[in-house]
């Protein structure tokens, strides 16, 4: 079901990217450290965190860590899911989960991250302050965003390329460039109703708007589903690499359009803004040639940085994938790779890396 809460709150992350920055990253729930400093209570996501998606039991490999966690935080563990315990839970999933895990499930009508006041209230009744709460989950724009909105400690449960701090930082910078380009492109239409501008100028603005929506959506979809099975994570790395390759190609087209538009704008003589005065009911034209040239140069600069960041993300992803595939090769898992990776990606990737293709 649509998570309206996350959709509305995501703009907070756009304004302040630090809100989606986790304080700790662990590859799986099994790697969650014992006795986190200053932490007296813990919020736990269900799907793809302590349990497989659509399962109401703790993943068997995590049973030992689950038991030790209940001993560390007796009566101060709370499961907060966007499935169990919400209005979408019509078949008693929350009750089954509580019975199987021995930990309460929060009942909430507003999905994460919007349910944080209810979480703070629940822990407040047990004498736990927000800064003493750790939120463990696998999604940036629900679990980690909610943790930072609460003033709590965010623990990202990832076993994917995005657990690389360099990759994570470059992703945030990339999204920031895309958002800046989006705002600038919209401004180009709203504030520059001008005459004599080249048609490629409008084409470039439209393409930048498309790209600025496309990339964050692609990135978000790549980061979303994260099963704990390490084989599934490897497939996810392949999909991320392919997705970033698409980003590079589309961003290269945006760069070509923007460069072409800049050349045409600089070659244009006079660009006039049509201004209608509703008081005198007259129209006058204002020379905005210098302004629109500066505007286009700034737009080109953002496009250049966007292209470079997409290329950096692709290279980081591909290099990490290459290391994974070479490890598979050393360990003699060729047959598994051939059956589980898309098409002939395994062989093509290794051959290309060796320079034998």
Structure description:
The structure is a single chain. The strands form two sheets. The protein has a five-stranded parallel beta sheet, with helices on one face. The protein has a three-stranded antiparallel beta sheet with strand order 6-7-8, with no helix packed on it. Strand 2, helix 2 and strand 3 (77-79) form a beta-alpha-beta unit. Helix 6 (165-190) packs antiparallel against helix 9. It has two domains: 4-158, HAD superfamily/HAD-like (Rossmann fold, 3-Layer(aba) Sandwich), CATH 3.40.50; 162-354, no CATH class. Mean pLDDT is 78; it is low at 224-231 and 352-357. It is built from eleven helices and eight strands. The longest helix is centred in the C-terminal third of the chain and has 42 residues, at 289-330. Helix content is 56%, strand content 10%. The chain is of the alpha/beta class. It has helices at residues 4-15, 63-72, 93-101, 116-124, 140-150, 165-190, 199-224, 230-267, 289-330, 334-340, 345-354; strands at 24-26, 41-44, 77-79, 133-137, 153-157, 194-195, 272-277, 282-287.
Topology record:
Layout: H1 4-15, E1 24-26, E2 41-44, H2 63-72, E3 77-79, H3 93-101, H4 116-124, E4 133-137, H5 140-150, E5 153-157, H6 165-190, E6 194-195, H7 199-224, H8 230-267, E7 272-277, E8 282-287, H9 289-330, H10 334-340, H11 345-354
Parallel strand pairs: 1-5, 2-3, 2-4, 4-5
Antiparallel strand pairs: 6-7, 7-8
Helix pairs in contact: 6-7, 6-9, 7-8, 8-9
């Amino acid at each position: 079901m649509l998570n309206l809460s996350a959709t509305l709150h995501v703009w907070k992350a756009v304004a302040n990217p630090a809100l989606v920055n986790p304080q700790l990253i662990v590859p799986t729930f099994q790697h969650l450290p014992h006795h986190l400093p200053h932490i007296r209570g813990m919020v736990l996501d269900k799907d793809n965190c302590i349990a497989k998606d659509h399962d109401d039991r703790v993943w068997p490999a995590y049973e030992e860590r689950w038991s030790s966690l209940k001993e560390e935080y007796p009566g101060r563990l709370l499961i907060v899911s966007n499935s169990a315990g919400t209005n979408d839970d019509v078949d008693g999933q929350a009750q089954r989960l509580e019975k199987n895990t021995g930990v309460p499930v929060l009942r909430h009508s507003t999905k994460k991250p919007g349910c944080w006041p209810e979480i703070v209230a629940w822990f407040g009744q047990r004498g736990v302050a927000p800064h003493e709460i750790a939120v463990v989950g696998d999604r940036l724009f629900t679990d980690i965003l909610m943790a930072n909105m609460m003033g709590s400690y965010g623990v990202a449960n990832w076993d994917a390329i995005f657990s690389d701090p360099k990759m994570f930082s470059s992703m945030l910078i990339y999204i920031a460039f895309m958002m800046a380009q989006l705002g600038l492109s919209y401004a180009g239409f709203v504030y520059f109703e001008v005459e004599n501008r080249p048609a490629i100028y409008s084409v470039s603005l439209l393409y930048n708007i498309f790209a600025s929506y496309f990339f964050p959506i692609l990135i978000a979809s790549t980061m979303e589903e994260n099963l704990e099975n390490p084989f599934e994570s490897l497939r996810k790395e392949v999909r991320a690499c392919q997705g970033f390759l698409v980003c590079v190609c589309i961003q290269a087209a945006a760069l070509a359009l923007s460069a072409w538009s800049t050349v045409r704008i600089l070659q244009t003589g006079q660009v006039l803004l049509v201004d209608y005065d509703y008081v005198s009911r007259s129209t006058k034209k204002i020379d905005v040639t210098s302004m629109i040239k500066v505007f286009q140069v700034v737009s080109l600069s953002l496009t250049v940085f966007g292209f470079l960041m997409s290329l950096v993300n692709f290279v980081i992803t591909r290099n990490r994938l290459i290391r994974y595939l070479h490890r598979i090769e050393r360990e003699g898992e060729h047959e598994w790779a051939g059956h589980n990776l898309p098409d002939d990606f395994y062989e093509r990737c290794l051959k290309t890396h060796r320079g034998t293709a």
